[in-house]
Amino acid sequence: MQLLRTYLSDFVSLIFPQLCAACDASLITGEDVICTDCRYNLPYTNFHQQPDNIVAQQFWGKLNIEAAYALYYFNKGGKVQNLVHHLKYNGMHRIGNILGEIAGKQLKQSNTFATADYVIPVPLHKKRLKERGYNQSAHFAEGIAKALGCQCEINNLIRKVATKTQTHKSRFARFENMKDVFDIALPERLAGKHILLVDDVITTGSTLEACGTELLKVPGSKLSIATIAYAE
User: Cα dist. 176→44, 172, 207, 213 in Å?
Assistant: First the structure.
């Protein structure tokens, strides 16, 4: 029976091939969303082994963070951009969970990240969430939390204001655009906890800075940051 199922699966794959979300190569039996070659050869940063990495440096003098990290380097037109695009716009939220588990396994090797009590994603405004149907960063957060063995807190950090795109704004304008955008529903749950704040791609870090500013208002809280990719 199992052999028959395998043959049927292979036959269906010939007619309707499943493609790698990063490189568009056909997936083979046992591969899930991302092919084996891409899983090993995407541009990993290894920032979990570099406390003073370039992502952490973006927050120096702005946020009192414990550590910061990005799983991959983001290059325009590259495979990581393909993954992020499919995750955000093509409904492939499974990518977020997979990348979260990959990141979580790396972060578990770090004495700092491994102490996280909660993983919290940067939230979408309820209007944007309704349009998209899911928060891509929440799926990344779930994967990390699963690998770290801690809790994922999805609905505590709230986006109160639906901001406009920040693509063409300066860093200062981006930060001003994000002021007073976020709030915390149940701050008492986070008191004295180490919070790992996660997002998809970090560029200037203004959104993460705005979120982190609110989270650090909670008494005794500690903050670390993790993203899928860092855009140079």
Answer: 32, 6, 10, 13
Give the closest residue to 213 by CA, choosing from 192, 182, 188, 171: 182
Q: Which residues pair with 182 in a beta bridge?
A: 159
Q: Where are the beta strands (DSSP E) in the chain?
A: 65-74, 118-121, 151-152, 157-159, 182-184, 194-202, 222-231
User: Does the pTM of the predicted model rise above 0.85?
Assistant: yes
pLDDT in tens, 123-150: 999 999 999 999 999 999 999 999 999 9
CATH number at residue 103: 3.40.50.2020
Give yes or no: residues 118 and 179 share one domain.
yes
User: Number of structural domains, the chain?
Assistant: 2
36 and 120 within one domain: no
